[in-house]
Amino acid sequence: MVGPRCLAGTGEGRSWGYREEGRAMALTQALTIGIDIGGTKVAAGVVDPEGNILDRLRRDTPTKDPKETEDAIAEVVHDLESRHDVIAVGIGAAGFVDGTRSSVLFAPHLAWRHEPLRDAVERRLGLPVVVENDANAAAWSEWRFGGGQGESHLVCVTLGTGIGGAILNDGALQRGKFGIAGEFGHMQVVPGGHRCECGNRGCWEQYASGNALTREARELALSGSPVAHNLLRAAEGDPRRINGPMVTELAKDGDPVAVELLEDVGRWLGIGLANLAAALDPGTFVIGGGVSDAGELLLAPAREAFKRTLTGRGFRPEARIVRAVLGPEAGMVGAADLAREEATWLRRVRVKTTAVTAKTAARGGRSTRLDRAARKSASRRTGMRAATSEGELQLEHTGDLQLDLPAEPQLNQTRRNQGEPEA
């Protein structure tokens, strides 16, 4: 096997060793594990480089305690690792993930605050771990394998309990200065409107999410209006049992009230997308999450509202609005692929640093200015320090990992910005 194993330490002392054992395999073709953390479950899958899920497991997490979630993650990874040779683990988590992709700063639906998830899981697994916002992970997978393939400027919006989002430009996830870009669901669209779980009022996700659809349907049923009879019948007379999938199924069966409820959510979706288009100017919006199962019942009114409220309408190109194609497993697939990209980049640093070390040794230990520049460049891009000992290369983390590692186009852009040749 060729792959990283934890040598010692966590956080700023995070160290990884690579040892060649038998025939080397290309890390770009290696298997990784993707994990999707939900409010009540941990889902994991072994993913190949084409985005196919080869094996999967699920564990319930009845509490929101971080330690129980970490226990569930370790359990599913150990189980899958016993059947597959994997090199890294990617975790998709709802909430704000810091710029080093190591800690969950804020997760309103999990009640996590500054949770050092990466280090906690790495200690248990002995594998490199990447923690990514779940919407970023889903967007990455749609760009790589799904509805966003071939699009240079993509915005992904996921409609579930709330609204998540992600931005990709030229193959690079845009995380922002602090790593929390894309939290579109908490744009305020109705000042003083419905109370949001984040503590504010009038957030977009209070009007265009699965929770919004459920709330409006339940309120209609509770009002006693005779038009809600199909909703009540589907819920066996109990308005509290009404949920988003139930409304969607009724709408697909032609129930006019359910269709109207989805149209209302779609209109709010289109208004928000028009605001995002004014700020970000993407070529494509990919709409995912459970609510997107409604298909054109949701997207048709969204497109109409988008065109009606778009700044400069009629005088500018309009972004496409399409449905995501990878479904609820997009986050799992994306997290696994991002973990593979990071492991591959670490290997590239290993090869480059080994070559520089060999050249220096051939000169009797005297490094040239070019050698020193190469080491400095690698260190600057990766935040890692490299050293060799007895045929093993150790990559020791010496600071916050600032690079967006996922995509070669992004790395080439970094090189161009620094005046270096592309790979």
Automatic annotation (TrEMBL):
GO biological process: glycolytic process
Pfam families, alphabetized: ROK (PF00480)
GO molecular function terms listed in the Swiss-Prot or TrEMBL record: ATP binding; glucokinase activity
CDD domains registered for this protein in UniProt: ASKHA_NBD_ROK_SgGLK-like (cd24061)
UniProt keyword annotation of Kinase present: yes
Alphabetically ordered keywords of this record: ATP-binding, Kinase, Nucleotide-binding, Transferase
Enzyme Commission designation: 2.7.1.2
GO cellular component: cytoplasm
Source organism superkingdom: Bacteria
Top enzyme class: transferase
Region (Disordered): 360-423
SUPFAM superfamilies registered for this protein in UniProt: Actin-like ATPase domain
Family: Belongs to the ROK (NagC/XylR) family.
Protein name: Glucokinase
Source organism of the structure: Kribbella flavida (strain DSM 17836 / JCM 10339 / NBRC 14399)
